[in-house]
Amino acid sequence: AIEAVGAREILDSRGNPTVEVEVLLDDGTVSRAAVPSGASTGAFEAYELRDGDENRYGGKGVLKAVAGVLDVLGPAIEGFDAADQRLVDAELIAADGTDNKSKVGANAILGVSLAVAKAAADSADLPLFRYLGGPNAHTLPVPLMNIINGGAHADTALDIQEFMVLPVGADTFADALRWGAEVYHALKSGLKKKGQSTGLGDEGGFAPDLPGARAALDFILEAIGTAGFSAGKDFLLGLDVAATEFFADGVYSFEKQKLTGDQLTEFWAGLVADYPLATIEDPLAEDDWDGYVHLTSELGDKVQIVGDDLFVTNPVRLQKGLDLKVANSILVKVNQIGTLTETLDAVSLAQRAGYTAILSHRSGETEDTTIADLAVATDSGQIKTGAPARSDRVAKYNQLLRIEEELGDAAVYAGRSAFPRAK
Ligand code: PGA
Ligand code: ZN
């Protein structure tokens, strides 16, 4: 049973404070979880509570959220069995009492929810992926590696937030990771040769000053070739457009043009025709439902269309998408919804409806590796956790290496099968 819950303020990968929680069980188990934080956040995400005290961390302190763990959430679940995750999470939600977790903060609630799951796994002496996924948890996800950063994650003019490489042709996760790292290094050389900056963005990808999507994709294709791989076979490509970030008053301000949603959709159709793109995330703004209906009917059978800001890991938003036939995939971020139970519910709802689900980091991360285990436990087949560089990103990839090793001969790498809609 849960005996005590502790919390502290720590730093995330951008140097901003975030919440870390420790749960103590009466058998002596102590387990810990840390909470990530986004930059290009969706308007419909659960509430991230920050202190607003300008004298500390520019107002971004999380001492109120820490106090919420100590004074409200901990006492609410003391005595609960840590294995009763659903009951624990329901109690946490009730203790907050608001629709969007704004009283105690989703950052406080998530930290407790994840630390309880880890404590239950540790107490049962099981790795987290096995505790959560049972005997069927054996598939290693394809890493969607973000190797060029733009948008809100870099100080460049590149509008698209993420350009990703997907090593689908590898036989194992370990090889997939190596392939991605080799392309990453080839890209660095290619950028350097053309006089481009090799400084990094928030998710460890390069942040060159490129004029647009096609220039970025061409650099990546060249890097794949230089590293000795074949684009379209060994690697597929992916984008996270994060289009909400350049949408205002009904207009998309994209690559120096003013576009309607349908015009932007035509641009994506052109890229899908010309490049081996398997996935496009948030190609339109988070509330452009009409635009999404049209885009999905045009492109939904050719490419994975992922709702991140669109669905915010929220079963209610996802259900609306299912009803309207909008997108065909959901990005899953634990702190967008705020409990493990609701996260798992969103994944189940998506998978039952034939949508893919991608476990994802945030641009602000910590050394916590929970999402690596979650990707295997939920059989998602895909994980998005940044470049194959920087410890906040690599921590998750390294955890997947350990999981693959632990599974031994039972391990299967999802590979191309994770992208049923790709050409
Ligand atoms: P965020 O970006 O964590 O800054 O929201 C990640 C994403 O948009 O997928
Ligand atoms: Zn996104």
Automatic annotation (TrEMBL):
Cofactor: Mg(2+)
UniProt binding sites for (2R)-2-phosphoglycerate: 161, 333, 362-363, 384
Pathway(s) annotated for this protein in UniProt: Carbohydrate degradation; glycolysis; pyruvate from D-glyceraldehyde 3-phosphate: step 4/5
Binding-site list for Mg(2+): 240, 281, 308
EC number per UniProt: 4.2.1.11
Database matches in InterPro entries: Enolase (IPR000941), Enolase-like_C_sf (IPR036849), Enolase-like_N (IPR029017), Enolase_C (IPR020810), Enolase_CS (IPR020809), Enolase_N (IPR020811)
Enzyme class name: lyase
Keyword rRNA-binding recorded: no
Free-text comment on the cofactor: Mg(2+) is required for catalysis and for stabilizing the dimer.
Location of the Enolase N-terminal domain: 2-132
Entry annotation: catalytic residues: 203, 333
Reactions this protein catalyses: (2R)-2-phosphoglycerate = phosphoenolpyruvate + H2O
GO cellular component: cell surface; extracellular region; phosphopyruvate hydratase complex
Residues that coordinate or bind substrate: 153, 162, 281, 308, 360-363, 384
Gene Ontology molecular function: any one: phosphopyruvate hydratase activity
rRNA-binding found in the keyword field: no
Residues covered by the Enolase C-terminal TIM barrel domain: 137-421
Major location (coarse): cytoplasm
Localization in the cell: Cytoplasm; Secreted; Cell surface
Alphabetical UniProt keywords: Cytoplasm, Glycolysis, Lyase, Magnesium, Metal-binding, Secreted
GO BP, sorted A to Z: glycolytic process
Function: Catalyzes the reversible conversion of 2-phosphoglycerate (2-PG) into phosphoenolpyruvate (PEP). It is essential for the degradation of carbohydrates via glycolysis.
Family: Belongs to the enolase family.
Protein name: Enolase
The species this protein was found in: Pseudolysinimonas yzui
